[in-house]
Amino acid sequence: MSDTRSLQGRTLFITGASRGIGLAIALRAARDGANVVLVAKTSDPNPKLPGTVHEAAEQVRAAGGQALAVPTDIRDDAAVAAAVAAAVERFGGIDILVNNASAISLTPTAATPMKRFDLMFGVNVRGTYACTQACLPALTASARAGRNPHVLNMSPPLSMREHWFKGHVAYTMAKYGMSECTLGHAGEFRPLGIAVNSLWPRTAIATAALQMIPGVDVKLCRKPEILADAAWFILTSDARATTGNFFIDDELLAANGVTDLDPYAVVPGTKNFIPDFFID
């Protein structure tokens, strides 16, 4: 089956696409000849975080895809609506939404100002919901046209253990809010033929955002490409049969015959990776 699986000609709307995991998913789709709408806040270079949405678009084109860069703050409903309209105008529709944009603050309650709380809820929960809502008419049209529409939320399985909450209640609630979108929207959109799934890594992933967290050794992480390849298997699967799942990257790859994960290690040969949050 894998010979025929492809994202060629499909249009993906990816948030947080200027770097890291979002960009890796975009580049994997581009290799198939996909159309990629890159939605991200960074339009001008930032000294702390490499990569702009325009540079990402150039990389997508170099990899073989069509690209549309749309600088967007997904907390702004009007901006989200404009980005969706631009995508539909340029490519004729949207087949896949990847809700990847996320804000993180691994802080306890006393050290989490409400401004930071609002950022995490605004981007992670509200942004995911807003982008899903705004893309819904295009995704519905994609389903009617038999184009296998998917929503993929980069969020964890819903484990209700105190352990995952106590150190960073606000962040956990914000990420779980994304996963609650997966749970609810999978059921809501099933009659429409639109798949909704979550994908989460077993290990920490080496991204610019992760490197801003003190004390994280990037050498004990995997590269974003592991999530890009895992996402590809989800997005090329039958939307009517594959929905409402909380996938873990290595399990999904193994189920698709990919068992040698060493190429994804930042340092090949690494055996003891930093585990990611939320996986029991």
SSE arrangement:
Blueprint: E1 11-15, H1 20-31, E2 35-40, H2 53-62, E3 66-71, H3 77-91, E4 96-99, H4 114-144, E5 150-153, H5 162-165, H6 169-189, E6 195-200, H7 208-211, H8 225-235, E7 246-248, H9 249-255
Parallel strand pairs: 1-2, 1-4, 2-3, 4-5, 5-6, 6-7
Helix pairs in contact: 1-2, 1-8, 3-4, 4-6, 8-9
- Whole-angstrom Rg: 17 Å
Major β-sheet annotation: 7 strands, parallel
**What spatial form do the alpha-carbon principal axes imply?**
globular
Counting H and I runs of at least 4 residues, what is the number of helices?
A: 9
Question: How far do the termini sit from each other?
Answer: 32 Å
Q: How much is the average pLDDT?
A: 96
**Spatial strand order of the main sheet:** 3-2-1-4-5-6-7
Taken in chain order, the helices and strands follow as EHEHEHEHEHHEHHEH
Protein name: NAD(P)-dependent oxidoreductase
InterPro entries: HSDL2 (IPR051935), NAD(P)-bd_dom_sf (IPR036291), SDR_fam (IPR002347)
Organism: Rubrivivax benzoatilyticus
What would you note in describing this structure?
The protein has 280 residues and is α/β, with parallel strands linked by helices. It is 41% helix and 12% strand. The chain is built from nine helices and seven strands, in the order βαβαβαβαβααβααβα. The protein has a seven-stranded parallel sheet with strand order 3-2-1-4-5-6-7, sandwiched between helices. α3 runs parallel beside α4 and α4 packs parallel to α6. This is NAD(P)-dependent oxidoreductase.
